[in-house]
Amino acid sequence: MSLKIIAGNTLVPRPYLKKWARWLAQLQEITQADAIWLMSLQGDRLQTVLDSGQPSLDQRTAASELANRLAEQAITARAVVEEYCAEVGCWCVSVPLCWPDASVYGALVLMAGKDGRSLLEWLRHMLESDFRTLHFVRAIDQHKNLLETRIAERTDDLRMANERLAQELSLTQRTAQLLRQMVIHVPGGDEHGYFHKLVQQLVQMLRAEHAFVALIDDQDPSRASTISCYSGNDWHANFNFEIARTPCSHVHKRRGVFISCNLDSEFPETQAQFGLQAETYLGVPLLDEAGCTLGIMAAMGGGDMLEAHLANEVIELLAARTGSEILRMHTEDELRHLALHDSLTGLPNRIHFRGRLEQAIAQAERAHTHLAVLFIDLDEFKTINDSLGHDVGDRVLVQASKLLEASMRDMDSVARLGGDEFAALLPGADSLEADAVFQRIAKAMSTPLLSEGIELFLSASVGCSLYPDDGTDSGSLLRSADTAMYRAKALGKNQLQFYAQHSKQTIQRDLVVGNRLRKAINAGELYVVYQPKIDLRDGSLVGAEALCRWHDQELGEVSPGEFIPIAERAGIISDLGALVIKQVIADLQEWQCQQIEVPKVAVNVSAKQLQTTEFTQWLAESVRSAGLKPHHLVIELTESVLMERNDINLPVLAELVACGFRISVDDFGTGYSSLAYLKRMPISEIKIDRSFVEHLADDQGDQAIAAAILTLGHTLGHVVVAEGIENEQQLRVLRALHCDVGQGFLFHRPLSRTAFHELLMHGNGGK
């Protein structure tokens, strides 16, 4: 919505009126105001400068009369005045607008809801910031006129002095021209456009070599960072520096202009801090209304910089204007934040969330990836609000927002849509990852909240939609997630439901398997089988590989090829791996107590489990407490896991080997290992992948690959194991290639712990 400029004002340039009209239009849109006026005091009467023209004709007269009356009251009282207008049916708020010298410019009047007052105050500060700027221009013009009068009054006897004043006048005129250009022609430009132009002009006017504007760090006031730096005839990269080790420290402490003509001796670390070489430094603080330092503006150069008193005058005038520009920039940032965030929780609001969602959809479309949208509604929140009051309800909403944020992944975002409704954006997530996020939400909310001595139990009904299956735009994805949320409420609340779940059999199967698997791990319902490993030279039993199996009462026998990837996506693979290791250690301990020679058993370890904090310590303690030796367990890792996050995995593998464990590389030849990494890894065994063994008898390519792996392994001193041996022809080729150990159906299928125990008792390996 645009506002009309009714009348101009000689004190305010028209570009400023246009800018103010845009600000008032934004304020009217944010607050949904019925009308808004900017009035200027002309003599003893008010004149309307900007007018939204919003009320209907029959309400127009009453609204205008009320606006004029409240504006006069605000100007007289020099304070905010507000009154409810029954004819228009809303609140009318008026604030006075004053020049820096306390004279009145006029008033700002807003007809809107009562909560529009805070935003009106922000707008008032922004307008008065511009008044300060215009006031400086007027002061400069007055100063120029004064100098011209003084020159006209001089006589010929003061010619030398007049020449000096002429030089000063020329500089003042250039400063005035620069300020007028920067004030009038760059109103509300891009964020740093003003500062780039400023430092460039500063170098030219002061005959300097470098100039910069730096802001004090809000988090660490001992440091500052430049937002614009010009050096020589080009832009210089922004830099961060420690204030105490530079001449900026004197500017900061004195809150005034500081000059150093011998930087090398007075501040020897300046060049190292700034990366700029110079002899002379001239700096001035950039202050806010309270006199606190916001930043520093400085020029640096050689001995030919402008004389000190002239340079002081220029830089002080520019500093005053620059301080106002920084305040304007900060005020706009705060107003933008208020417009895009929920005032209670600080989370993004609905508008901000939809913008983020549209961005994520565009990225997912380009990358051909997924994303998930969660629509979250707090269960029974209305009961809390109605029974304990809105203050308690607000505190619950704040705590709930923190719990939701803590439950998300690093790349996820949460927003408050309104009331007790929240939304979450999960880039790159599929159904399993969305379910894992919900599980964290449910766990976080399972702990009761304490409010005024009362325990409050929270839960959430969550609906999920997936891109692109359930929608390809923000509106359809939010609607689908909302529909799924209502289904979750209808089915008993405190649960997650997916949109159109009945048509998504794969998703449903994964969720069912994931949920049943989580329960099975907690209940210890999975079991271990052992596939024997045979010495190919003499056929003796040399160990086994522990394999996980799962028979569910509802699902029946579930293949490891199905439930292991689901465990990885659902984030429970570490729990599954720990369960297998505990069962293997318990079996080995039992066999050792029966005076049976304990075999070496290989257990598979995932990347996530390997990178778990204190994994090595936990494993070593588990083996020690069972009375076993570390060499009884072989840690088996796939080649891809071994290469993933090599910087993290290598120290962990070194710790395991130092404790006495052996490392085996599974599926060797399929992960594109670097031979340099392979040489560095503390491994003792590599396993030829079954894909190279399957056609070994009749495929010369597979024979060549197997021979190369065997040669490489033996050269590095590793034991080489072939897996998937199923016939005599494969066995003959492997023996001819001098393979050390084999496993497969030709020798034994995976055996139950009882059957493997019998095999150990008889000591019978295979062929």
Tell me what the structure shows:
Residues 369-501 form the GGDEF domain. It comes from Ectopseudomonas khazarica. InterPro entries: Biofilm_reg_signaling, EAL_dom, EAL_sf, GAF, GAF-like_dom_sf, GGDEF_dom, Nucleotide_cyclase, Rev_trsase/Diguanyl_cyclase. This is Bifunctional diguanylate cyclase/phosphodiesterase. The protein is α+β, with helices and mostly antiparallel strands. 48% of the residues lie in helices and 23% in strands. It has 26 helices and 29 strands. It has an 8-stranded mixed beta barrel, surrounded by 4 helices. Strands 7, 8, 9, 10, 11, 12 and 13 form a 7-stranded antiparallel sheet that branches. α15 crosses α16 (560-570). The chain is elongated, with a radius of gyration of 38 Å. The chain starts with a strand and ends in a 5-residue tail after the last helix. 38% of the residues are buried.
